[in-house]
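Example 3.2
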Amino acid sequence: MNRLSQNIKSLRKRMGETQEDLAYSIGLDSKSAVANWESGNNRPSPESLKKIAARYRVTVDQLLEDDLSTGFSLLNYLNNAVEDKGSDLAHSFIYLFPIVTIKEDDDLYPKLKDTKDIHRHFFECVKNQDDESCIYLEKAILDYTELIKQSGCISAIANILSLWLFVMITLRNYINFEEIFDLFEIKNKTKRKKEIKRFISEDLLSKNIDFSENMRSMVYEDYYKDIMEEIRVLKGDERLFQLGDYYHCLIHIFDIVDNDLSTEINQQIGLVLLSDLSLMKKINLLKRIENYFIKVGKSSVILNDKYVEKVYNFFKKS
């Protein structure tokens, strides 16, 4: 079995699809062609290669040249996610967005301490799946905004950026999976698995809307310039320039950048920036990313799982 054959089989199984599922999804009448591709007895036409790559969210070059083999199954992960609340993963995700404390700012702005407490309450509500989380989020953003307008408080800038990035990255993840949450209410595990399989095949993999364009139309026009300006402000402050570099890395890793590059390329840029952070010995910030990807590396659903593996391996080598 050659590299291409292995990749087609691995990608298909990763999404819980049968050979017949893949065949019908790309316009073939039977599974025999897919079986021949996966056994190495035949090779897809250039047109079929494009369709397979598009369906599984990879490039044709990746399909032909990269090792995409993995034991991960999105179907099994999502079906088992109901029993596993994922509290460790939720905690490590929240940990990506630090709440900054600068003593001089706390002394100058008494309201800042109260706002940070509200910020912490928001994260606690998120971890506990508390419906009041949005109340705390709105209050924290309003209070930070007031502090920034009144004084340009750098701690408030850093912390409102933390909240906005948390919201945008959460939204990015939610858009792809928003239709699945009703399926989690199905108690029978066999029936639930069947419905999740249908969701992956008919909805998730068949969507024609490019995610990046979808995300841009919803939030980039209003928020992206402000986020980049706040990162620039942090980079210009001798106390927080490392945090600015960290967030610049993070927005590429999670592909919430407003450019014409593909998700794969933006994430590769994020990996390069991550390497730069490592060389600059920014240990405390690196630990946040490391902790998250160690957790995700054991489950892998938030990002393309091959990319997760690359980041996970980066930290294992560091």
